[in-house]
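Worked example 3 (structure in, sequence out).
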């Protein structure tokens, strides 16, 4: 145990001695899309026995926001550095439909009459996802304060108004970013490419998140 503790202290001392470490708050916001969207076939049937046929579905990615804390490790005399972000965030999306609606025949009705269509209906569903993520990235300085980086962001999502067995979702998006370090503030644009089906709803087949985000890093 003492030997392991000594090794950890040695590694930390070496990292601290040969690197500059700074940290601070990071705030982000952006827009995105959903990949592999496949809306369900067939009518939507409500609890009141009304079905909607010939449905036309649509969705809109409204926004996403995040706030977190960044640790930046800058090895001395090296063109590269590392960022480790710990974030909490929120995504909001909407899905909507339009279509003709009709009343389903009752089970006890022995007749074979065709369902009677009454008119048109529309609906709107809001989706809110809360997230917690850790995003390590490796970054390379291109010229002056300009840099580019890549990493991976393990993310745990919690969907609002969902049954407990479907509430939690995990994703492992690949990230790429380009930014400019002004020393007192850092501005960057990142792209996040989700790998797992995360966007799920009873009226929408599984899909993956894709999003762009503008981030501001303010070191203390």
């Amino acid at each position: 145990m003492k030997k392991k503790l000594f090794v950890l202290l040695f590694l930390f001392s070496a990292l601290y001695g040969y690197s500059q470490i700074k940290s601070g708050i990071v705030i982000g916001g952006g827009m995105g899309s959903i990949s592999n969207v496949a809306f369900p076939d067939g009518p939507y049937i409500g609890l009141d026995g009304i079905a909607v046929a010939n449905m036309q579905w649509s969705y809109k990615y409204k926004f996403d926001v995040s706030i977190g804390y960044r640790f930046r490790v800058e090895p001395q005399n090296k063109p590269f550095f590392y960022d480790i972000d710990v974030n909490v965030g929120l995504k909001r999306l909407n899905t909507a439909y339009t279509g003709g609606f009709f009343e389903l025949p009752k089970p006890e009705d022995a007749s074979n009459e065709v369902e009677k269509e009454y008119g048109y209906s529309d609906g709107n569903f809001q989706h809110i996802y809360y997230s917690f993520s850790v995003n390590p990235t490796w970054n390379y300085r291109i010229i002056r304060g300009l840099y580019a980086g890549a990493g991976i962001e393990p993310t745990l999502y919690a969907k609002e108004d969902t049954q407990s067995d479907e509430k939690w979702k995990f994703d492992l998006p690949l990230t790429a970013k380009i930014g400019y370090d002004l020393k007192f503030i850092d501005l960057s644009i990142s792209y996040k490419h989700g790998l797992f089906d995360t966007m799920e709803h009873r009226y929408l087949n599984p899909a993956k998140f894709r999003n762009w985000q503008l981030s501001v890093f303010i070191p203390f």
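Notes: DSSP finds two helices and twelve strands in the chain. The chain has one domain: 20-219.
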